[in-house]
Amino acid sequence: MGQAVTVWVPATTANLGSGFDCLGAALDFGNRFQFALRPGGEPVITLGATVPGENLAYRAFALVYERLGQAVPAVTLTLELEVPLARGLGSSATAIVAGLRAAHYFLGEPLPASQVLAWGVALEGHPDNVVPAWWGGCRLTCGECVAGIPWHPEVTPVLAIPEFALSTAEARAVLPSHVPYRDAVANLGALGCLLQGLQQGSPELLRAGLQDRLHQPYRRGLIPGYDLVERAALAAGAYGMVISGAGPTLLALTAPVHADGVAQAMVQAWQGVGIAAVGRIAQVSERGAQVTAG
Fold first, then answer.
1. What secondary structure letter does DSSP report for 257?
2. Which residues contact 51 (CB under 8 A, 6 or more apart)?
3. Could you tell me if 145 and 40 lie in one domain?
4. How do 44-47 and 75-80 pair as beta strands?
5. 43, 18 in Cβ contact below 8 A?
6. Residue 136 sits in the same domain as residue 39
7. Under a CB-based contact definition with an 8 Å cutoff, are residues 63 and 98 in contact?
8. pTM above 0.90?
9. DSSP string, 202-254
């Protein structure tokens, strides 16, 4: 299948308020990974940006060979990273999907995509980033069932990405092991509203659907200035604001006409408490991971 392959994988925003651990969407920017086979020796990783010492892309690449009983080939891995690390935008999912797709390509793609993707979900620990990173679009996952959720063009994602990082492990650690029954029921209703709101572009349904009781009440305390940024976003016209993934990036949904103002308001609110941030108006990408030879 050739000696080199390049895999582009989109950033993702996951959880989406009431869609905790099951709902995520691919965004219109991402990371690029090139895998080039070599005659032998240890793997070589060339970094276009700082990455953690344990490289997930290579781990996922090796996993496919190991599961198929094949020797892992020597490879040079070159990274071009646009997705910031530990910001709640699916950087780890981009690495996992890239490694899986590259290895599967080199092996002649002998397995159903769903099988390889399942390995990625297991490696990540939850599906809401990996699934949209693989397929693109907005995706709802329930066990082995994946549903594409139409995203109305009048619903614009606005990101406020702060300078500080927040690890997924730290964000997971603050979650309780049990939640009240009424909170679980409230989230079921909110998720139904959110799915309809995304499809219809309905402000009322989106406002209701972005209300969460499973993770945001516990995680917002890890993000300095959260309340100020939320008030600023709502005042500027956002339907609601939530934590993107495990955070600390904050995501607002709004009408296109308000997107610039919402982005500026969120960044300025953070600046008011001494936190530098970057605002980004994104789009949902229907394009998932892309594999090209060379």
1. G
2. 45, 79, 81, 85
3. yes
4. parallel
5. no
6. yes
7. no
8. yes
9. -HHHHHHHT--SSSHHHHGGGSTTHHHHHHHHHHTT-SEEEE-TTSSSEEEEE
Task: Say which amino acid occupies 103.
Answer: A
Q: Report the SS3 class of residue 34.
A: strand
The pLDDT mean for the chain works out to: 93
- Considering the domain architecture, whether residues 194 and 237 belong to the same structural domain is answered as yes
**Tens digit of each residue's pLDDT (9 = 90 or more) over 27-83:** 999 999 999 998 766 656 665 444 434 589 999 999 999 999 999 988 889 999 999
Q: Is 175 left (phi over 0), alpha (psi -120 to 50) or beta?
A: beta
Residues 183-219 pLDDT 10s: 999 999 999 999 999 999 999 999 999 999 999 999 9
User: How many structural domains comprise the chain?
Assistant: 2
**For residue 24, what are the CA distances in angstroms to 13, 80, 128?**
6, 23, 5
In a shared domain, residues 113 and 20: yes
Which residue range forms the structural domain that includes residue 167? Answer: 156-281
Chain segment 152-188, per-residue pLDDT in tens: 999 999 999 999 999 888 999 999 999 999 999 999 9
